[in-house]
């Protein structure tokens, strides 16, 4: 399987699919969410986005469906081009796919000693290796602190700059060896996951793209249209939570003269929906997933 979807039924139910509506799957991947939505449509349409060219092999042959090989940050541009505004619902399953994790050449996993790449879109000019070997020490420290939420990010950056002065950091094994003195005892897997998360977010500009998706959703959703987003770490979830509560990613509450909150969107579920015990047992990678659903006012 290209990708085992997380919270599949819960996210589709959250969209409250209208059989004649227009929907957007911003993270097509293996196409499971798309196919499930299409099963509920009669005369409706579905537009999907995926920046990974390898996902194109999973394209669904259906006259109601269109797959756009671009980052979802271009949501408004392509929906306008396809004459698909307004839409009834938008779905995003953030993070990386099982296919990307399980393909050694993509460099997303520490299980193999392969070139450290981390690009979701292989057409991007800069990969993780370029960052490790070329970014200033101060910027590396900022990335590890801001995107990996790692302790002692300055030490990690120092280890990297010292190593690359002697020899380039090319593979995942090189990186693990470089950071070995800083790896906390009995926490190697978690530590490396945070390091790779930080680098991956920087390579793919993930948080910037998510902010643009959230802001653009208000431009394309019709009143009572639904937004369903599955996030996998606190940085993503914080942006989604803030946006759904206040209408902006900063979480700033704006009120009118009478003290009423001014926003174009409101949460449907007060708390995030998380995987069931059964799903956690069947798919351990779902353990950090959180689903939030909101409706445009």
Kindly describe this structure.
This protein is an alpha/beta fold. It folds into two domains: 8-98 and 206-296, Vaccinia Virus protein VP39 (Rossmann fold); 109-204, Orthogonal Bundle (DNA polymerase, domain 1). The chain is built from twelve helices and seven strands. It has a seven-stranded mixed β-sheet, sandwiched between helices. It is globular, with a radius of gyration of 20 Å.
Identify the quaternary structure here: single chain
Query: What order do the helices and strands follow?
Result: HEHEEHEHHHHHHHEHEHE
- Strand arrangement within the widest β-sheet reads 3-2-1-4-5-7-6
Q: What is the helix fraction of residues, given as a range?
A: 40-55%
From the helix content, strand content and strand pairing, which structural class follows?
alpha/beta
How many domains make up the coordinates?
2
Beta-strand fraction estimate: 5-15%
- From the alpha-carbon coordinates, what is the Rg to the nearest angstrom? 20 Å
Low-confidence stretches: none
Number of strands: 7
Mean pLDDT: 96
Distance between the termini: 38 Å
- Please give the largest β-sheet: 7 strands, mixed
CATH topology of the largest domain: Rossmann fold
Envelope shape: globular
Total number of helices: 12
Question: Which architecture of the largest domain per CATH?
Answer: 3-Layer(aba) Sandwich
In CATH's first tier, which class of the largest domain applies?
Answer: Alpha Beta
For this structure, what is the CATH homologous superfamily of the largest domain?
Vaccinia Virus protein VP39
Top keywords for this entry?
297 residues; alpha/beta; Rossmann fold; DNA polymerase, domain 1; 2 domains; seven-stranded mixed sheet
């Amino acid at each position: 399987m290209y990708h085992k979807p997380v919270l599949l039924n819960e996210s589709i139910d959250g969209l409250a699919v209208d059989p004649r509506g227009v929907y957007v799957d911003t993270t097509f991947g293996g196409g499971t969410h798309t196919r499930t939505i299409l099963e509920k449509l009669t005369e409706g349409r579905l537009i999907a986005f995926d920046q990974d060219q390898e996902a194109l092999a999973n394209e669904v042959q259906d006259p109601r469906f269109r797959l756009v090989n671009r980052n979802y940050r271009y949501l408004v541009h392509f929906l306008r081009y396809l004459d698909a505004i307004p839409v009834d619902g938008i779905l995003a399953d953030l993070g990386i796919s099982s296919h990307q994790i399980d393909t050694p050449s993509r460099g997303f996993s520490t299980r193999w000693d392969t070139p450290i790449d981390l690009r979701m879109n292989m057409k991007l000019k800069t990969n993780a290796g370029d960052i490790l070997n070329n970014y200033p020490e101060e910027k590396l420290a900022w990335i590890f602190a801001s995107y990996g939420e790692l302790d002692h990010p300055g030490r990690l950056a120092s280890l990297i700059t010292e190593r690359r002065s002697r020899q380039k950091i090319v593979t995942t094994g090189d990186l693990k060896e470089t950071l070995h003195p800083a790896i906390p005892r009995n926490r190697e897997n978690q530590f490396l996951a945070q390091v790779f998360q930080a680098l991956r977010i920087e390579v793919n500009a993930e948080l910037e793209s998510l902010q643009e998706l959230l802001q653009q959703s208000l431009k394309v959703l019709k009143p009572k249209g639904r937004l369903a987003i599955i996030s996998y770490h606190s940085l993503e979830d914080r942006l989604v939570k803030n946006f759904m509560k206040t209408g902006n990613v900063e979480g700033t509450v704006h009120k009118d003269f009478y003290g009423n909150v001014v926003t174009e969107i409101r949460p449907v579920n007060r708390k995030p929906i998380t995987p069931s015990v059964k799903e956690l047992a069947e798919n351990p990678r779902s353990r950090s997933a959180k689903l939030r659903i909101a409706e445009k006012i």
